[in-house]
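re: ur question from yesterday

yeah so i grabbed the chain u mentioned. its 241 aa long if i counted rite. heres the sequnce exactly as i have it in my notes:
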Amino acid sequence: MPRLSLVIPVYNEEANLDRLYAEIGEAMNGVTEDYEVIATDDASRDRSWEILKEIAARDSRWRVQRFETNRGETAASAAGMKAAAGDLIFTLDADLQNDPRDIPKFLDALKSADCVCGSRVHERADNWLRRVSSRIANWVRNTLSDEDISDAGCTYRAFKKECLREVKFFRGAHRFLPTLFRMEGYTVVEIPITPRDRFAGESKYGVWNRLFKSFADLLAVRWMKSRQLRYRIAERKGFPT
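ran it thru and got these structure tokens back, copy pasting raw so excuse formatting
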């Protein structure tokens, strides 16, 4: 059984997948733990699914699945997490903006935390509107959810599988996993990572996604935190030890 599960949602990334496969293989050469890759194709309209099947045919560590219809990043990520066999789960994008060579850094940080979030220390070469919208989205998320995650938009993360035990997924939940984990009492830390520009293809996110579409999800998380049950048992008798 693999100890590490790399969970990758895929949507129209045909030009990136072969290079992603090679980079993961190179990065994992220096990792002693066994690993698997769970790639979920979110009903891509290009050749992504054909390429994923070719990769899985030549490498048994890759397990691939495809949605019948497009369901979004949260659904593709959740399906991959559900299928994961490892005790430690990594989520990363298929567009090569997350560098697999950072995986050992996440593993080291997981020795003292339950969840490790990547924080991009340098900005990518995005246009000014995309950069500004990302900063505003981070500020709004942290302000309304009473969080301190410096880069909430980065979904390059690693966490113990047990963190998922009580999480109820909803559309857009992938943006708020660190908050949902903390609500269950798990520890969350950040480590610096260096982002890369997209190698090929087009971004799936813009101003609408970052600032407006996720706002209702943010309000839902805020409500959940405000209504969270909090109590401590003062004394027990008769329970098994």
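noticed a couple things. The helical segments are 17-28, 48-58, 73-83, 103-109, 128-145, 177-183, 207-213, 215-226. also The chain has a mean pLDDT of 84.
anyway ttyl
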